[in-house]
Request: fold
Amino acid sequence: AQSVTQLGSHVSVSEGALVLLRCNYSSSVPPYLFWYVQYPNQGLQLLLKYTSAATLVKGINGFEAEFKKSETSFHLTKPSAHMSDAAEYFCAVAGGTSYGKLTFGQGTILTVHP
Amino acid sequence: NAGVTQTPKFQVLKTGQSMTLQCAQDMNHNSMYWYRQDPGMGLRLIYYSASEGTTDKGEVPNGYNVSRLNKREFSLRLESAAPSQTSVYFCASSEARRVLSQETQYFGPGTRLLVL
Reply:
């Protein structure tokens, strides 16, 4: 079975500050990892995904994430937060016998203060 | 391209009523999914369909049925709604005929369901 833990259900940063959203996963097979973003009253949109090609993955809107197998982590970062980054972020894992069925973390709400 | 569309956007039901949530995609995708989203629990897979004519249970299928009407449409039915089914329901699709782990899933805007 696979699982995802997102540390911190709410993260608050100032505009221009570093954004760090934490994700740890559990998987018995090499995982595929995803970060999705959900803006208020909208569906989920893919930010980036790790498919074993490179450990540092760059996504849309200046976000990136690094796959660290030894730490079973896939944390999401952005050097400088913008007001428009305020949203809920979901980490998800797939792989092995789960095939393409995604297992999602509980989500982290990012608030950006002026 | 509208992507993934869902109807209705919002619905209120009384306990025991039935309803069908509709989902359609215009991306010629083979696989389609239904999720429910509850606060603090992320999204959980209800049912999925890897190709037209096939459906499989996900993590939380009890109380739901699905129909893959054709390649474009995948509906979710609540036969006898319960308050525990109050949630936001998302439909998603992905390209591959087989459900592949590295595939990106594309999500619709969601249906907010309140069961009284």
